[in-house]
Amino acid sequence: MSAPALRLLALDTATLTASAAVVRVVPGEAPEVLAEGDVATGAGGSNASERLMPLVAELMERAALRMADLDAVAVGAGPGSFTGLRIGLATAKGLAFAAEKPLWLVSSLGALAWSMDAAGDALRVPVLDARRGELFAGFYRAPAGGGVPRAVAPERVMPPGELAAAIMALAPPDGDVAVAVAVAGDALVAHVAGLANLPMNVHRLSGRATPPAVGVAALAAAGDRADGLAHGAPAYLRPAEAEVMYPDGVPGALRKR
What we know:
There is one protein chain. The chain is about 25% helix and about 25% strand. By secondary structure, the protein is an alpha/beta fold. It is globular.
């Protein structure tokens, strides 16, 4: 007997492009997209709070669903923009809490890996611009029988020049045969010079460059998720710039005890 279909509202605000989707998905099968859309959120995701809710309302209307009809809300927890992630998680948490639905957190890099048009056995390396001269990188492989890709190494933040070594550690050449590697994401454009040393077996994909909400839904439905309603928090991977500049607190504000 097959698993029942799930109806999910999925969001991702890890980058300058916020993504939302209403999806019907049977675990283990490809999602059926009922409605989806993207909006630009400005530098650091600063406009996400103004643009995300109208997008959600539009998509729910197009899908002819109410919040009560959903089984859960899923959200990309990062890594990505500090402001964007906080807004996305707060929005998703508010919607889930008000509708009395579960809130499921998944990796934004995993959602991007899901969307990559790569060979089944390829190492998938989604990369997002982390600013400050760094990038966020994930390392994924799709199961042999198909399905959502699974992480084969921890997500990392690093200078672009270190990505080649990280890839080679996971996909070294097999004799004279180059192991297939696919890289995709907005960091390919943001860090062109820093990524010039990528190995010859790396294929730079030109498709989706930011995490899609449909990928968030696919990962959540497959069980690659965390319960985020009570204690969910974004996956920043590094301290905020304010924490680095002012470890004892912002001057003039209350200091840490």
